[in-house]
Design brief:
There is one protein chain. By secondary structure, this protein is mainly β. The chain has a single domain, classed as Regulator of chromosome condensation 1/beta-lactamase-inhibitor protein II (Methylamine Dehydrogenase, Chain H, 7 Propeller). The protein contains no helices and 28 strands. The relative contact order is 0.13. It comes from Phaedon cochleariae. Pfam families: RCC1. This is RCC1 domain-containing protein 1.
Length: 333
């Protein structure tokens, strides 16, 4: 499997000597890649057997207890958090990565029948949920309980939760509309995103201060801060010139995105710090938002406010797409 990446590489997180990777190009290759996280200065790759860090163009092995398998990994700019198959979470802070000492345990459930099954982290919060439906805004256990939760995604200051019925909940900071509740208030506990009620959502993504959700019908809904055009809601001019500058700075309610080819469905979405990726069902990659470090495309435009064609992956089997603050990644088999 290969990972195609672009964007800023000032800290050697993309395994290449280029300071800026202008076009998506393969920079990692492993037999199996289960997960990839890109942060400001390092990347994390979970393979079939190991968890690896790419930092300063060097690959380092993340330590784990003997005989214990890492089931999932997440990271932010300060630390790596791993989830073992036994449901235990552990962390290693960035300032200690050079030592690569054994990770310190941060959370385990009190009951033998209950265990953590997923976790997501960003710079301001780390959220996990258990097989019993308990939600942890680590280290605190929330009052909200939903045994049907199937996914969690953290943005810089907010969190999205998805249950098996396609219902989306959000909590955290709402000052830039990233919660999708039609207002800018914060929420300490998960609250239903009412604008998406009745729509079967199959995938969620949380960016710096914006959010995305993909419906069963292949529609992309997006909301939150639009300071760099990351919502992609601008209208194109009929003469195919640049998009009209008619976007709003904050969209506090989910809105559906219109693509040029209305017959195509969106099959994957990823939200970065200030940019967004969308993969269509023909394996064409589109993106919008901040492009200062070529995290979208090798163009001089610093902001791209309409979803723009980036790359054709028709010859590849795309497994996943991911965004970092200043990077984009496409994992292919």
């Amino acid at each position: 499997m290969r990972v195609f990446c672009n964007g800023l590489n000032l800290y050697g997180q993309l395994n290449t000597n280029k300071a800026v990777v202008g076009n998506l190009e393969p920079v990692f290759e492993f037999e199996v890649i289960r997960k990839m996280c890109i942060n400001y200065c390092f990347s994390v790759i979970l393979t079939s057997d190991d968890c690896l860090i790419c930092w300063k163009n060097e690959m380092h092995l993340v330590p784990r207890k003997s005989g214990e398998t890492i089931l999932h990994v997440t990271s932010n700019d300060e630390r790596i958090i791993s989830l073992s198959e036994t449901g235990k979470l552990a962390k290693s802070d960035l300032d200690k990565l050079c030592d690569f000492k054994e990770m310190m345990s941060i959370l385990s459930c009190e009951s033998a029948e209950e265990k953590i099954i997923n976790v997501s982290s960003c710079s301001k919060l780390t959220v996990a949920y258990s097989n019993k439906g308990a939600i942890f805004n680590i280290p605190n256990r929330l009052h909200f309980i939903n045994p049907h939760i199937v996914d969690v995604k953290c943005g810089r200051e907010h969190c999205l939760l998805l249950d098996q019925f396609g219902t989306v909940y959000s909590f955290g900071r709402g000052s830039r509309g990233q919660l999708g509740h039609g207002k800018l208030d914060d929420e300490e506990e998960p609250v239903l995103v009412e604008a998406l009620a009745g729509i079967k959502i199959t995938q969620i993504s949380a960016g710096g201060w914006h959010s995305g959700a993909l419906s069963q019908d292949g529609d992309l809904y997006i909301w939150g801060w639009n300071g760099n055009g990351q919502l992609g809601l601008c209208k194109r001019k009929t003469d195919d010139r640049a998009a009209e500058d008619n976007s709003v700075s904050v969209m506090a309610t989910p809105h559906v995105v219109d693509f040029e080819d209305s017959e195509r469905n969106v099959i994957k979405v990823a939200c970065g710090g200030r940019h967004t990726l969308a993969l269509l069902d023909n394996n064409h990659l589109f993106g919008c938002g901040w492009n200062k470090y070529k995290q979208l495309k090798n163009l001089e435009d610093e902001n791209i406010s309409v979803f723009t064609y980036l790359h054709d992956f028709e010859q590849d089997e795309v497994v996943d797409i991911a965004c970092g603050p200043w990077n984009s990644a496409v994992i292919c088999r």
